[in-house]
């Protein structure tokens, strides 16, 4: 699962979702979905967002292992 620090970084910079969206060239809805982990941005969008905060990509976004659904093992049997 792709994790991010967008909310934290926005707070640090004192910008709202609308301003961040303008700076990154995406919609405010896209920013909101990314922050909540409901949308995985393309590499290009992720790079643009990292550039807004002058941070390396890996300090803004990182992967974590998804927890395996307990029922998936039962279904597989």
Question: Can you offer a commentary on this structure?
Answer:
The chain is mainly alpha-helical. The chain has one domain: lambda repressor-like DNA-binding domains (434 Repressor (Amino-terminal Domain)). The protein has helices at 6-13, 17-24, 28-35, 43-52, 57-60, 70-76, and strands at residues 2-4, 61-63. Strands 1-2 form a two-stranded antiparallel ribbon. It is globular. 16% of the residues are buried. The mean pLDDT is 90. This is Transcriptional regulator, XRE (Cro/CI) family. One of its GO terms (molecular function) is DNA binding. Residues 6-60 form the HTH cro/C1-type domain.
Summarize the structure.
This protein has 77 residues and is mostly helical. It is built from 6 helices and 2 strands.
Helix/strand structural class: mainly alpha
Rg over CA atoms, rounded to whole Å, is 15 Å
In terms of per-residue confidence, which ranges show pLDDT below 50 for 5 or more consecutive residues?
Answer: none
Helix content: 55-70%
Strand tally: 2
CATH topology: 434 Repressor (Amino-terminal Domain)
The name of the CATH superfamily reads: lambda repressor-like DNA-binding domains
Task: Bin the strand percentage.
Answer: 5-15%
Order of helices and strands: EHHHHHEH
Mean pLDDT: 90
Provide the CATH architecture: Orthogonal Bundle
Give the biggest beta sheet. 2 strands, antiparallel
- Amino- and carboxy-terminal Cα gap: 25 Å
In what order do the strands lie side by side in the largest sheet? 1-2
Number of domains: 1
Overall, the morphology is: globular
CATH class: Mainly Alpha
């Amino acid at each position: 699962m792709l994790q991010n620090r967008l909310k934290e970084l926005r707070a640090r910079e004192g910008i709202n979702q609308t301003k961040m969206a303008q700076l990154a060239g995406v919609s405010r809805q896209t920013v909101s979905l990314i922050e909540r982990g409901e949308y995985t941005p393309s590499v290009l969008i992720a790079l643009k967002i990292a550039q807004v905060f002058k941070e390396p990509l890996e300090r803004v976004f990182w992967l974590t292992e998804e927890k395996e659904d307990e029922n998936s093992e039962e279904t597989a049997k």
